[in-house]
Design brief:
It contains twelve helices and 20 strands. By secondary structure, the chain is α/β, with parallel strands linked by helices. The model has no long low-confidence stretch (mean pLDDT about 95). Bound molecules: guanosine-5'-diphosphate.
Length: about 425
């Protein structure tokens, strides 16, 4: 069989626990490649009692021998990237050996961050809930064909390119109000760019092609989640990139015919950060209990995450648009003390019932629930009630749940014999 690239991505609104699963499965892969997003992502890994948060660098970086490639679909803030490198180096990671950067990846400039803040402030109440890291404006410059790329750092005229883009941004910023003083940020950016020279740069499409020819195993790692996809998410409350499996092709230069398993990560419930529709959201103390039990506060922003019951139509939609071949259920332990577990099986839209994700999830979409008994405790494995809950999910979405996570640690991971086959 020809060597293929497996894809691992979020099947909900992000923060599903992708980082933990990548870290758990990393020994099976020689290359882990991030295909989209930027430093707005925050993947949290916990092992040997220590917590590590990664923003731009793939979650395989703690497994010796693994190559971690930041793909062309990712946008990079050199300052944040360098900070992340230094934290890893303090942990003893040989970053120059473990990490590779795609020359085609776009760079976030200080003025991108300023534009992000100005644009979000202008939107007032209808704000998207941006993390204000400059990611949206950087992707806009990419599609507007103005962007600066990692490969440009090798050019002698980098400063001229930088100044040209900065001037464009300053004209735009002038429309929003006074120009912020970015001199210090700019110096920091230039310094970070110089220090990034220690990380090897590659043409990622060629690198991965060669890796496939050599029979090396590759995992493409997504950030955020399916329902935040720029095309298929709850637009306009979405991120600026394609978070779905197709994004792995464009974000790494992999042909669709080379995609193998597609692993969808979901939580036993749902969360969402920032604004936007969320049909199963709980505004009561049950939601608060989930938030506290699941520590549902953003790892990048610290913002409390909105919490609610599992949404099966949304999960089925994620299975459909990604071609998910298997699922991993995270954070089952968070619901341990809940007597009754609700699961959304459909929506009532304008008086009619549907189990299909509508074009837009507006306020008129009301979640319809089924109640299942709680499972008490996951310390000793998967209790019968949890198994019944998982079977209910498998039957609704038609793909197997192969991994169940019952705690943040690597060790709290159960490989399950699925109830359905894909
Ligand atoms: P990611 O962006 O998808 O990698 O997710 P985050 O790292 O933002 O959020 C996942 C959080 O849940 C992290 O703090 C993990 O340590 C934690 N976590 C992952 N799996 C589990 C689990 O099964 N149970 C509990 N209680 N926490 C988990």
């Amino acid at each position: 069989m020809r060597q293929q690239v497996d894809v691992l991505l979020g099947a909900q609104w992000g923060d599903e626990g992708k980082g933990k699963v990548v870290d758990v499965v990393a020994p099976d892969y020689q290359v882990i490649a991030r295909f989209q997003g930027g430093p707005n992502a925050g993947h949290t890994l916990l092992f040997e009692g220590r917590k590590h948060v990664l923003h731009t660098i793939p979650s395989g970086v703690f497994r010796p021998g693994t190559k971690n490639l930041v793909g062309n679909g990712v946008v990079i803030d050199p300052v944040i990237f360098l900070r992340e490198l230094k934290a890893l180096e303090e942990e003893g990671v040989d970053t120059a050996e473990a990490i590779l950067l795609s020359r085609r990846a776009h760079l976030i400039l200080p003025t991108h961050r300023a534009l992000d803040a100005a644009s979000e402030a202008e939107k007032g109440k209808s704000k998207i809930g941006s993390t204000l890291k400059g990611i949206g404006p950087t992707y806009m410059d990419k599609t507007g064909r103005n962007g600066l790329r990692v490969g440009d750092l090798e050019r002698g005229d980098l400063r001229t390119l930088y100044d040209g883009l900065k001037r464009k941004h300053e004209r735009l910023l002038g429309l929003y109000g006074d120009l912020p003083d970015l001199r210090e940020a700019e110096e920091e950016w230039m310094d970070a760019v110089r220090q990034l020279e220690r990380i090897p740069r590659v043409d990622c499409e060629h690198y991965l092609d060669e890796a496939l020819r050599e029979g090396r195993s590759i995992l493409a790692e997504g950030a955020q989640g399916t329902l935040l996809d720029i095309d298929y998410g709850t637009y306009p409350f979405v991120t600026s990139s394609n978070t779905i499996s197709a994004g792995a092709c464009t974000g790494l230069g992999i042909p669709p015919t080379r995609i193998g398993r597609v692993i969808g990560i979901f939580k036993a419930y749902c969360t969402r950060v920032g604004s936007g529709p969320f049909p199963t959201e709980l505004h009561d103390d049950i939601g608060e209990r989930m938030r506290q039990a699941g520590h549902e506060f953003g790892s990048t922003t610290g913002r409390p995450r909105r919490c609610g019951w599992l949404d099966l139509p949304a999960l089925r939609f994620a299975v459909m648009v990604n071609g998910i071949s298997e699922l991993a259920m995270m954070k089952a332990d968070v619901l341990n003390d809940f007597g009754t577990i609700r699961v959304c099986t459909g929506y009532r839209v304008n008086g009619s019932l549907t189990d299909r994700m509508p074009y837009t999830l507006t306020d008129d979409v009301e979640a319809v629930y089924e109640d299942l008994p709680g499972w008490g405790d996951t310390a000793a494995g998967i209790p019968a009630e949890l198994e019944a809950y998982i079977l209910r999910i498998e039957n609704a979405v038609g793909v197997p749940v192969k991994l169940v996570s019952t705690g943040p640690d690597r060790a709290q991971t159960i490989l399950r014999a699925p109830g359905v086959t894909a």
